Amino acid sequence: MLDKTDKMIIATLTEDGRASVESVAQAVGLSPTPTRRRIRQLEEAGIIRGIRAEIDADKCGLELAIYVFIKLLNRDRATISQFEARIMSLPEIQRCDLITGPHDYILTLRLAGMKDYNRYLRDVLAELPGISGIETSIVIGKVKDRPHLPLDAV
């Protein structure tokens, strides 16, 4: 279980992944040595899985954010395995989650524009194995984008 100091370390690194051990230590009220040890323990436990750059997709020319809801024909192991293996090979798909409700998966994509999505829908998504239905929602505006976990609620 995470204690208050671990949560503060995670919050500090979430805010600034490039923060030095010394600045993290100062933020959480520890010296660098125990802070470094705690960070290493969080990494070894798989709680901290890596530090990544946060990229502005719009500024990279990927202005269209799309949610694609997928329904499979069958939920047998072979269909699921084939579908998920194919999804893993598609770089345009940023995220794929198995969900409850009327759909089986939700995909998150970033593309340059609607013409690109039209092509992608016809040439890639429609050809995925085992699909019985595809529904799309286009993101028209961002209301909140917070990479932080609500660890203070735990």
- The coarse overall form would be elongated
Number of helices: 5
Helix content: 25-40%
Adjacency order of strands in the biggest sheet: 2-3-1-4
Structural domain count: 2
Give the N-terminus to C-terminus distance in angstroms: 9 Å
The overall pLDDT average reads 94
What does the model show?
This protein has helices at 4-15, 21-28, 32-44, 77-88, 114-123, and strands at 64-72, 93-98, 105-111, 131-138. The protein has 154 residues and is of the alpha+beta class. The protein folds into two domains: 4-44, Winged helix-like DNA-binding domain superfamily/Winged helix DNA-binding domain (Arc Repressor Mutant, subunit A), CATH 1.10.10; 58-138, Alpha-Beta Plaits (2-Layer Sandwich). The chain has a four-stranded antiparallel sheet with strand order 2-3-1-4. Helix 1 (4-15) packs across helix 2 (21-28) and helix 2 (21-28) crosses helix 3. The longest helix has 13 residues, at 32-44. It starts with a helix and ends in a 16-residue tail after the last strand.
Strand and helix map with partners:
Elements: H1 4-15, H2 21-28, H3 32-44, E1 64-72, H4 77-88, E2 93-98, E3 105-111, H5 114-123, E4 131-138
Antiparallel strand pairs: 1-3, 1-4, 2-3
Helix pairs in contact: 1-2, 2-3
Task: Quickly describe the structure.
The protein is α+β, with helices and mostly antiparallel strands and 154 residues long.
Attribute tags:
single chain; 154 residues; alpha+beta; Arc Repressor Mutant, subunit A; Alpha-Beta Plaits; 4-stranded antiparallel β-sheet; 5 helices; elongated
